[in-house]
Amino acid sequence: MSRSSSRSPHRTGHHKYVIKATGEAARNYDFKAARPPGRKKTNLIETIGNLAKSCLGGGVVAIHESYKMCGLWTSFVLTIVFGFCISYAMYMIAHSAQRIYGRVQVPQMSYPDLAEATLETGPFVSIRKYSKCFRYLVDFTICFNLFGSCCVYQIMMARTIKQLVEGTNEVSLEGNPPLRVYIICLVVPCTLLGMITSLKYLAPFSIVADFIIFTVACATVHYASKVAETSPLDMPVFKTVAGLFEFMGVCIFSMEGLGAVMAVENNMEEPRNMGRALFGGMSIVVSIVVTIGFFGYWGFGEMSKSPVTLNFPLEPFPIALKLLLGFMIYVTFALNFWFPFDLMWYYIKNKYDPSKYWLWERIYRAIFICGITCIATTFPNVSKFIGVLGSFCISNMGFIYPAFIELCLDWTDPGLGFMMWRFWRFILIVTFGLTLCVVGTYTNVKGLIKESF
Predict the structure, then answer these.
(1) Which compartments does it reside in (predicted)?
(2) Domain membership flag for residue 30
(3) Which of 162, 196, 319, 397 could form a disulfide with 258 if both were Cys (CB 3.0 to 4.6 A apart)?
């Protein structure tokens, strides 16, 4: 469930990148051998598992609600299509990095490193001076995505607690106390959890989280099949264009692991097998997302709620599963908070005396979590919030940025190809990304504001 990575990838950048080799010399650079020894590398099976954990975010337990907005069969097909698109986006990032390693003679990079190095050594001389800005833009998008995910997790926890306290299948913004009070009450436990500064105390929980998600998927099939009142063939095929863009945002958010793809690649025994690892990992991810989305909407219909466990009956096993999911989301909150805060703290700490880092780091952790709680309290709608994150962040991280990086690398070696087909591929990907970003973000923000006030 973690979308985070270790501290080291973000300490490799912030230096001048220059082209040291081209052509065959660059292609023959053995970046695998040049990587520093130390940490145990992951084999293909372990890498597939890490990718699945990185890509399965909290949005997976809300995917059924986006199926409700778009239509069952359109959503079913598009989930598979977007699974392929996200796999290709992650492959673009990893493959672009492996191409630039040889040019700058650097054996490993993070995603922000890749962005900076590509622009700094790219063919467009007039914009090379903006390479640091490109790096910061990638940093900002990653932080926006993961801090936003923390808001989503707080809302999910609050909704689960509210249902268990009230003992009802209906979970609304209103009530005594209303949902926003539950969200505010979570600021203390979330702040305490956010004070954990070492990832090694949190990472083992990701294995338990994956088991819980798999159990939730199986339980969704079971309970949905029991209560379904109609055949899947009688469910709506397609609803509205607005619903389509809402679905796209949630679906893409539920399957992406773009912020972690370079951390996974950097830790592989055979990094050139990234394509095979992506095929295996994304097959698992798409299967789970399709299962929860399809059965969740088919079984629970137009009254379905997020997270999907809210639709399960109030019986001993489902109640235990709700509690486990709440625990999983709580731990995932810490995992998702750790990575963007670590990135932000790298810049913030320069303002303070190193002897006071311990104190200021914890003060800023508390401030950031209070800010996350304020945003979650203001906009307590899970699916629309996820839609905003998916539409804005993933359209940039997964389509626009990687397409631009790949174009820069292709420009001179191997060139744009027959009839400039690589340039037209760039235009196609960027057009899709911009459409999703503009229309999807507008649609989801509009719905978020409407349903929050």
Answers:
(1) Membrane
(2) no
(3) 397
Distance CA 107, CA 125 (A): 24
Determine if the pTM surpasses 0.85: yes
Question: Cα separation of 140 and 136, whole Å?
Answer: 6
Residue 76's domain comprises 36-452
CA 433, distance to chain mean position in Å, is 16
C-alpha R_g of the chain: 22
For residue 366, the Cα-to-chain-centroid distance in whole angstroms is: 23
Would you state the structure tokens that stand for residue 384, as one six-digit string?
């629309």
Backbone CA torsion sign across 141, 439, 57, 280:
negative
Q: Which of 164, 170, 212 is nearest to 321 (CA)?
A: 212
Q: Does residue 27 lie within any of the structural domains?
A: no
Six token digits for residue 89: 């986006």
Structure tokens at 66: 């986006």
Q: Is residue 9 part of a domain?
A: no
- Which parts of the chain sit beneath pLDDT 70? 1-15, 38-39, 57-58, 199-200, 202-204, 206-207
Contact 220, 318 (CB under 8 A): no
Three-class SS state of 41 = coil
Residues 6+ apart with CB under 8 A from 203: 2, 335
Residues 6+ apart with CB under 8 A from 41: 267, 268, 269
Q: Specify the pLDDT at position 10.
A: 43
For position 176, what pLDDT does the model report? 81
The predicted structure's pLDDT at residue 200: 67
pLDDT at position 9: 40
The count of structural domains within the chain is: 1
Half-sphere exposure of 144 (CA within 13 A, CB side): 17
- Measured CA to CA, the distance from residue 241 to residue 395 in angstroms comes to 18
What is the amino acid identity at position 44?
Answer: L
Number of Cβ within a 10 Å radius of residue 157: 26
> How many CA within 13 A on the CB side of residue 114?
34
Q: What is the dihedral of CA 270, 272, 274, 279, to 10 degrees?
A: -110
